[in-house]
Amino acid sequence: MKSSALPYWLTLFVVLGIAYGGWKVWQIEQQRQRHQMKLFSSSAQTGPALTEFTLTERSGQPFHSRDLRGKVWAGSYFFSKCPGPCKRMNEGIASLASLDELADVRFISITCDPTNDTPERLADYADSFQADPEQWLFCTGEMDYLQRVGQDILKLSVKLQGHNQNLMVVDRAGQIRGTFDLVVPTDLRAARELMLICLAEDVPAASEIVEDTGTDGDSTDEGPEVDASAAETSAQSVAPTSG
How many whole angstroms separate alpha carbon 198 and alpha carbon 7? Predict the structure, then answer.
């Protein structure tokens, strides 16, 4: 009897040991992410919170966030030399942008490697995804300003060549409505559903359009040169990763 019970207890101890080890790894990772977010918050904020922004588009022309007022749009970060998920992320955006039903959604892809991602480089990169220059914009700027746009406007943590995989969907009133992981097929489907919901909503009066996506700041800075409840349940943001 005792000999037959021994394998059971050994197996149980092994399973419990693995579970405990996994929990400790998760706990350490959560602490690392919180520390990283704290460092990001203290380094990126160099002035009052942004409520508008101006970046340089791949055409070399300035792009003003006020051009998005009353529109449904989605923003994300990437860099062209990314050895990680950027290609898959932008393939996900390309799949959304190719849908006729989402033709009125604007996609804003912002580099986090502005030294290498010049407008010319961004133009070549955009061409590799056959990105419509009227619908899908690729933007750059100075790194500290790009971080502030991420923090204040899109609520995304960004560092040099470091970003997460999220697409932030913003409605016609300028409110962030959902966060979606661009490399997860179910998230892409949920993003599509939310965009359709947002497109079906009435264009708000000018007085109802917020100047930002949820901050309490009152600064403007142009910078250097499914159902609704289900669709809005989004993937969790993660700390920035390289690539």
Answer: 57
Which value, to the nearest 10 degrees, does the dihedral of the CA atoms of residues 156, 159, 162, 168 take?
20
Tokens of 74: 């989605």
| pTM (global) more than 0.90 | no
Q: Is 209 exposed, middle or buried (0-12, 13-18, 19+ CB in 10 A)?
A: middle
- CA atoms of 170 and 90, how far apart (whole Å): 18
Secondary structure of 88-119 as H, E, C letters? HHHHHHHHHHCCHHHCCCEEEEEECCCCCCCH
CB-count burial class (<10 Å; 0-12, 13-18, 19+) for 199: middle
Average pLDDT over residues 185-189: 97
Helix extents (H) in 1-142? 2-44, 86-97, 119-127
3-state class of 140 per DSSP? strand
Closest CA to 138 of 72, 129, 174: 129
